[in-house]
Amino acid sequence: MELLVFVVALCLATGVAGVRLSFRAHRRIGAVQRLHDGQLEGARRRVAQLEAALTQSDAARLRAEEEAFQGRRRHADLIRVVSRQMRTPLEGVLGFSDLLRLNAGGEPLSHRQRQAAERIGEAATRLLTLVEGLSALAEAERPATGRLQRVDPLLLAHRACLPLLQDAEAAKVSLALPEPQAGLTAMVDPERLMRVFADVIAGAVRRSDPGGFVEIQARRLGGEVQVTVRDNGPGLSSAQLETLFQPLAAHAIAAVGEEGARSSWPGLAAARTQLQAMQGRLEGVSAEGRGAAFIISLPAADAASTDGAPNADRLLPELSRLPHGVVLYVARDKAAVALMRRLVQDFGGLQLHVADCAAKGAAMARDLRPDAVVLDLDLATDGGAAFLTDLRTDPAMRSTPVLGVSSDPEVSRAADVAEVLHRPVSVTGLAQALTRALSGPPAMRAAS
Predict the structure, then answer these.
(1) What percentage of the chain's residues is helix, strand, coil (to nearest 5)?
(2) CA–CA gap between residue 242 and residue 257 (Å, rounded)
(3) Residue 412's beta-bridge partner residues?
(4) Which end of the chain is more exposed for a tag (fewer CB within 10 A), N or C?
(5) Residue 34 lies in a domain
(6) The model scores a pTM over 0.85
């Protein structure tokens, strides 16, 4: 009996102790839970405060960036408006000073009067050079609004050289047109890069002596594409290089007065600013008597986008892929042919065949039976009339759409041509015209 009482007492004691431990554990767990909940709530409030502060900081940064953007735009617009308004009175000053000197036979000027007229003309020429230079600097500092595109820089350099060929020929300087290279692409704003090439190449031609040459080369170096414009002129000293890139320095302004109409102010400062807006660089290397070389460094297009499937959305958001079909391109200009090949390579879907003259084009058209023809209307003196007549005499080719490309802006329509594109033809315009020509039934194409 005593043993039974002892066992019952032991069980009761153990149960009571267990209940007490359980209650104590629950109390501690509740305290820990309350402490955790309090800390979690505090952390949530802190996170919310940090997110609010970050939002305010981002908003302030965006406002500052927008104000800076608008400030730069207003500054550039102001300089451009002032420069434009100054051209009219400068034109009058230059014109009347020239009249005074040219009319010296009818109304003779004294020696002092002739000197005064010459000084007036020189000062007006210097002022006009400064005004035009300020306009170039203001345009370069305008915030970029265009999207960066994947382009072949040598193709743009080729186009920039074409308007300069006449000046180079007049100066008896050999200007070698660069040929596009497959796979050599950079991410740039094409319009800005065209202006950069025009400034750098024009400067090289202007510095070259008669019988000299200007050449353009490009290479891929790491994550950059480097385009080098080299001349074999008299070269530049370190002070002259500094003047080219620092046009607002006192000695650079003074050089405008010394060189007069031959001054190239503001030099290459505007080109350097244009490149900096595209994450690029412009550097000059020269030694007196050994010519000069200007290196244009551009961010290379992503190597991953050049391998495998082309990234059409980055190039032309309006188009995904070109329609399937066979296209005959009748043109002689190598840059235009390279552009067409690049378009076909990036967007696929097309089989491209090229003929460099109308006779070859007509023969290839009879053999290939293309779905569309792109004809350079400047290829022959008759504007491609003989080719089109030959093409339409074949019954199988009467409904084939023909796109014409002309450098004459007044040519808006041509017989048997569905659509006329004017140079310079943009990649977007060319792709959209091909899409329209290849989309629709043959009868509809012929009707267009």
Answers:
(1) 60, 15, 25
(2) 17
(3) none
(4) N
(5) no
(6) no
319 plus 414 within the same structural domain: yes
Structure tokens at 402: 């023909």
In whole angstroms, give the CA distance from residue 270 to residue 196.
Answer: 8
CB 76, CB 140: distance < 8 Å: no
Mean pLDDT estimate for the chain = 77
- Which residue, 257, 230, 233, is CA-closest to 243? 257
- Rounded to whole angstroms, the Cα distance separating 63 from 86 reads 34
Task: Say if residue 365 is in the same domain as residue 228.
Answer: no
Q: How far apart are CA 308 and CA 112, in angstroms?
A: 75
3-state secondary structure of 393: coil
Most confidently modeled range among 17-26, 83-92, 148-157, 259-268: 148-157
Rounded CA gap, 152 and 145, in Å? 20
| pLDDT per residue as tens digits for the range 22-33 | 778 888 888 888
Please state, in angstroms and rounded to a whole number, the distance separating the CA atoms of residues 126 and 248.
14
116 vs 124: CA distance, rounded Å: 12
CATH code at position 266: 3.30.565.10
Question: Which of 303, 338, 369 is a domain's end point?
Answer: 303
Helix (H, G, I), strand (E, B) or coil at 288: coil
What single-letter amino acid sits at 354? V
pLDDT of residue 264: 56
Q: 388: exposed, middle or buried (C-beta count within 10 Å: 0-12, 13-18, 19+)?
A: buried
Q: The domain containing residue 251 runs over which residues?
A: 144-303
Sign of the torsion angle spanned by Cα atoms 178, 183, 186, 191: positive
